[in-house]
């Protein structure tokens, strides 16, 4: 019964339009926002390929760690909010206003995270040269093309 309720909850959480800016974005853009914490992973993993200097790496690393901390907090906050929503919806005649507030809380957490990740992402990108940024863009494009080939 709990698995069924949790499944229904997840459908509600991800299917119901919640009252935030990010919920109006296409799924592809949402995925990009939630992966921002991992973008610096790609930069650092491919430091040699894109030509990062030791100085650039030493500037990116603290930002990278902060982004991962924010991402961990975000995931935990969303999970806690989802558990709270399940608690609200466990009863047969649950309070619709409380459920709406729970869904809005999840959307607000996602919006706050997305906005909070923009500044460090911008900061990391200003450390890159134009040439390095273009190399990263090309690597991302090649990765997406490879992923799309595997989906077919």
């Amino acid at each position: 019964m709990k698995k069924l309720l949790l499944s229904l909850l997840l459908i509600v959480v991800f299917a119901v339009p919640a009252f935030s800016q990010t919920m109006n974005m296409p799924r592809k853009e949402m995925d990009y926002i939630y992966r921002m914490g991992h973008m610096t992973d790609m930069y650092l993993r491919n430091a040699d390929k894109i030509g990062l200097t030791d100085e650039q790496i030493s500037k990116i690393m603290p930002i990278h760690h902060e982004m991962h901390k924010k991402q961990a907090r975000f995931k935990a906050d969303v999970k806690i909010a989802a558990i709270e929503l399940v608690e609200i919806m466990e009863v047969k005649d649950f309070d619709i206003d409380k459920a709406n507030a729970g869904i809005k809380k999840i959307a607000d957490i996602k919006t706050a995270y997305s906005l909070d990740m923009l500044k460090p992402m911008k900061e990391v990108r200003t450390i890159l040269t134009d040439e390095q940024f273009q190399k990263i863009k090309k690597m991302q494009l090649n990765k997406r093309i490879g992923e799309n080939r595997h989906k077919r």
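The helical segments are 2-15, 27-34, 36-45, 47-50, 54-89, 96-127, 130-151. The chain has seven helices and no strands.
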